[in-house]
Write a structure and sequence with these properties.
This protein is mainly alpha-helical. It contains 20 helices and 9 strands. The strands form 3 sheets. Strands 3-2-1-4-7 form a 5-stranded mixed β-sheet. The protein has a two-stranded antiparallel sheet with strand order 5-6. A hairpin with a 5-residue loop joins strand 2 and strand 3. The chain starts with 7 loop residues before the first strand and ends in an 8-residue tail after the last helix. This is Animal haem peroxidase. It comes from Lentzea waywayandensis. It is found in: Secreted. Its main location: secreted.
Length: about 550
Amino acid sequence: MKRHVRDSFFVVGEGVLEFDGKGETTTRQPSTAEELRRFRFSRLGPKGPRTDEETRTALATAITATVPQPDSADPAVPAGFTYLGQFVDHDLTMDRTESQLGQDVNLDELMQGRSPALDLDSVYGRGPRDKDDQVFYAQDGVKLKVGTTTPVPFPDEGTNVPFEGFDLPRRGGTGGTAADRRLPLIPDARNDENLVVAQTHLAFIRFHNRVVDELALTGLTGERLFRAAKELVVRHYQWMLKTDHLPRIIDPAIVDDVFTNGRRFFEVSGRSRHDSPTMPVEFSVASYRFGHSQVRGAYQWNRVFRSGGPVGAPASLFQLFTFTGVSGNFDPSSALPADLDDVTRGDFFTLPSNWIADFRRLYDFTEAGRDDLAAPAEFDGGNVTKRIDTLLVDPLTQLPAGTFGGRGTQFREIERNLAFRNLTRASMMELATGQQIAELFEVEPLTAEQILVGNGGAVVDGLSEEQKARLAEATPLWFYILREAEVGNGLMGPVGGRITAEVFHRAMEGSRISIVRSPYWRPTLGPDSSTFRMVDLLLFAFEGKADLLNPLGDPVS
């Protein structure tokens, strides 16, 4: 199975960056066709200094300390957007060239396959006509496959039935390990590493299939129907990202500036049709890891796993890893990360029915005027993201090995800590500091007090005075961007926000289907010609029906 982390990066202009077991970097030029076809990274800014392991460990410990975790600022951001962000990251960073090796591909296909684009290739792969990707599609070669959940008697007969279309399609069969049989039949297995992103991916499958049904009424069939459906889906997806997702995480003035006036710093000059986008390491390794700080330790999930429900508690983050095929094992008796690392454990091979998402608890459908789909009254704040800041919840110190491709390998316990992993990868890449990017963007950098004290985020008192001085002068970019948002009311600002908005703009511009290159296009599946939000996508995908958005129903009073 493909690992979820990269052991090397093909950085345009530098070569292949590789890291040994001690984190030392070697750089060499690509020497094979395989390496030339790799996903292409770039640098937006200069190289920066490395951070020593002692400092990385102390800073990661501060970031993941067990302290109060502020919710997102007003207006609150529904919790589903945390995992929509993860879904989008996988779309941006999916490398489709691995299975193209040895095949005849033209230059456009080659460059697109190793370039970031917001075109839902994590959902579509290379399409139903590709012999390797046909497995993701239904028999008609137009719709995408869906899976069926496994009936379970707990807590009642309402969950003791299979629900078709409410799990990802899975490999099944009898060969291999139990983990092999649970693997999802989707182009990017990373979208099954936690249950929220898995159910988000399923929603996009259902969105495509519903669009297919609607377009089929116009007489389209076969490949023409598939291509028309994909184009409509991708354009609406991009519109939703531009108008709904980005303004919730970035200062809206930055988003408006980038999409109105264009990019100022990233791949600004005119480019030929063969010059596809690259992915700046500052985005991949720093700015778009902002979402790690939005993750909660537990979620009000459905009528079963909620405060006051049959189990008496909401779904823990650990459980949301457990009930997946990539990171977990669908085994309710799993209690430790080591349990999830065991590829032979577990008797279920599809999602148990009592773990189907209630999307009303992840998004706010009252935004679309659907008060009948408002979140249940027992909510206690579990339906909003954490604020974007320098704090990560404690469960992120104990990542299951499946989340970083570590199943079956040996690694130190500190490597389960997500903050440590982020800081370490950035150091290995010699990523620019926050101050270096602020200088490049010609914006006022954060002060030493803002970096060291912040605004209710990580307390860095565990660092030595020397470490604090280095942190204030040369701040690791990921920490800088989180601190910037922390002092900016939970929105990414002139460094983190600018990097993120410009990469999104470039990725849309470089996609085969693009609203940036089609500025007069407007959505047709929302309430009006200028509105299409994530709630509109879900309403369309689930036919606006409460029993599809929440198939387990509400508690019986």
